[in-house]
Amino acid sequence: MTDETDTSKAERVAEAKRIAALNTQAQAERRRERAAQKLRENLMRRKSQARARRAGGADETDGLPAAHLPQPDDTETSNSET
């Protein structure tokens, strides 16, 4: 009688482990799907930005120090300084 009880208990434990493994696999699959979706969204956004730049709709640069375009006077001054 204890052999039957031990066997059924072992079967229940094994079944619980299989279910836990399936749940873990399902969670991992959902995580991969979410990551893939985020990557697709990011790629679409980057492509859209690149198309906008090619079309001349680049980001606004007002007020940025790096947006300073060299003037003809600037190049003459920098050349004579070197």
TrEMBL record:
<feature type="compositionally biased region" description="Basic and acidic residues">
    <location>
        <begin position="28"/>
        <end position="44"/>
    </location>
</feature>
<protein>
    <submittedName>
        <fullName>Uncharacterized protein</fullName>
    </submittedName>
</protein>
<feature type="region of interest" description="Disordered">
    <location>
        <begin position="21"/>
        <end position="82"/>
    </location>
</feature>
<feature type="compositionally biased region" description="Basic residues">
    <location>
        <begin position="45"/>
        <end position="54"/>
    </location>
</feature>
